[in-house]
Amino acid sequence: MRNPLFYAKILLFGEYGIIEDSKGLTIPYNSYKGTLTFDENSQGKISNESIRKFAAYLEENFPGEFDFDQMKSDIEEGMHFDSTIPQGYGVGSSGALVAAIYERYAANKIETEQGISKEIIAQLKETFSKMESFFHGKSSGIDPLICYLNLPLLINSKTDISTIGIPAQKEGKGAIFLVNSGAPGETAPMVQIFFEKLKQDGFRKTLKEEFIKYNNACIDAFVKGDVNPLFSNLKKLSTWAFLHFKPMIPQRLLDAWQYGIQTNSYYLKLCGSGGGGYILGFTKDYEKAKTHLQDFDTEIIYKF
Question: Which residues form the GHMP kinase N-terminal domain (predicted)?
Answer without folding.
Answer: 55-148
